Amino acid sequence: MLRTGAKRPNSSPNRTQSRLMTIVTRFAPSPTGFLHIGGARTALFNWLYSRRHSGVFRLRIEDTDRQRSTPAAIEAIIEGLQWLGLNWDDEIVYQFARAERHAEVAKHLLAQGRAYHCYASPEELEEMREQQRAAGKPIRYDGRWRDKPATDRRPNVPPVIRIKAPQTGETIIHDKVQGDVRFGNDVLDDFILLRSDGTPTYMLSVVVDDFDMGVTHIIRGDDHLTNAARQRQIIDAMGWPIPTYAHLPLMHGEDGQKLSKRHGALGIHEYKDLGYLPEAMRNYLLRLGWSHGDDEIITTEQAIAWFNLENIGRSPARVDFKKLDNVNGHYMRQASDEALADATLPLFKGNGGPDLRAKLIAAMPGLKERAKTLVELADGAQFLIAKRPLPIDDKAQKLLSPEGRSILARLIPIFEQTPWESAALDGAVRNFAEHNGLKLGAVAQPLRAALTGRSTSPGIFDVLVVLGKAESLGRLADQTKS
RNA sequence: GCGCCCUUCGUCUAUCGGUUAGGACUCAAGAUUUUCAAUCUUGCAAGAGGGGUUCGACUCCCCUAGGGCGCGCCA
């Protein structure tokens, strides 16, 4: 065993767990839609596990469903992974391109007597299931062609190839997350390996591809747990090594229901558009189902050093945008002003002129601790690019009362005489407030309203400095004239 | 229907038989403050229910309830 101290029972002598063998993980999405948050977490765990063990992380596109697979979805998945920083090794494997090899395995099994032809029509099988349902019996292929002699074959009907699975005994999946999961072989039926048109089914393709790609650890969604027992039949029939499994509990929406567009099953690119940082997404996703004591903020470097399969939880987790916001806020505050400016710049879509980046960087210390996402950051920075006369929101309007305006009017001549840097401006305003028997806030708030059009902003002296003397005085003048 | 999985504060989780059941998010209060944040402090809040096993169960076993997944010539 490579891992020691595993708390879940696992005594299987897998040779894939040999210390000498390079660990190979894979992420195998089917391109029938975008990469959603559950898939992203699966990819993350696979990536982390391979990086933790200096192994290999591979990407396989399961595009064998020709009806539903689209190039756009493939594109979205690739872009999503790239944005998340989950770089894969080697070339991408496209499953459909390997159909011949899959068929070859099915035929090999047939030749070995581990599989057989079945001529039952879809209609016939549907009728069979209907009867099983009506009789309250388990729904599964009844093996009607399992033992028929070759002479019984129907000449004008192309057959499917079905696995000849064991009918007694049990199949045990030693799962790193779920523990030992046992399936009576009587509940496993002779599923189809090769369709009547000669194309392989998913069940066959996965097993063959995982073997050919040298996958040692299969980390995937819980929905595949029962499939693992079926896939095991193919693995055994071929005499291939059994990979180590880790089936992750599925993720739920904020309301505990299945993930759907309403609550969290957004494409991963939409999280980007919402203004989340990839490193924050990684941290957040990691903590959904995996833990390291009480640690919450876990950098990617730490995650790579610490990640294991043993600490993956067994119960489903819900997405929680409040927590994501909080984690994202942490990473924003820790990010460099330059990096944040670069990440935020695109949100202005070219507005703001060539010196916007410099202004953003200058204002960033005050901006970044007031925002939880890049979108909020850009919003808070609107005053940097606003054109005079500024739009003034309701709360700011209230601050610009007659008294407020009068204060601004008296401030202008003072500012004209003041060196334009933070400490001097600070001194001048405090001095002014003191001489007029005003609290600092009574002066700062109207100033803020006139300068930013809002009632909240970064520190007012920083705003003054970032805006510059001419622009600042202009904005103040706009509010004192009318 | 059959099989499998899951169940600790509202949410994410710690706990590997003995703890005042801990942390984080959210929320509330306070401190700080030129606003809002950030930061710090404090508070609210949990072992689905029922049986066992044990000197002692959140932890081990069984049952029930609830939730999820699978049962395609889909993946």
Describe this structure in words.
With 482 residues, the chain is mainly alpha-helical. It is 45% helix and 10% strand. The chain is built from 20 helices and 12 strands. It has helices at 37-52, 71-84, 99-111, 122-134, 202-212, 225-238, 268-273, 278-287, 300-306, 321-334, 337-344, 356-368, 374-380, 382-385, 394-399, 402-416, 422-435, 440-452, 460-467, 469-481, and strands spanning 24-27, 56-61, 93-94, 115-118, 160-163, 170-175, 179-184, 192-194, 217-221, 244-248, 251-252, 317-318. The strands form 5 sheets. A 3-stranded parallel β-sheet has the order 1-2-3. A 3-stranded antiparallel β-sheet has the order 4-5-8. A two-stranded antiparallel sheet has the order 6-7. Strand 6 and strand 7 (179-184) form a beta hairpin. Helix 16 packs antiparallel against helix 20 (469-481). The radius of gyration is 31 Å and the shape is elongated. Mean pLDDT is 91; it is low at 1-18. The protein binds one RNA strand of 75 nucleotides through helix 4, strand 7, helix 5, helix 6 and strand 12.
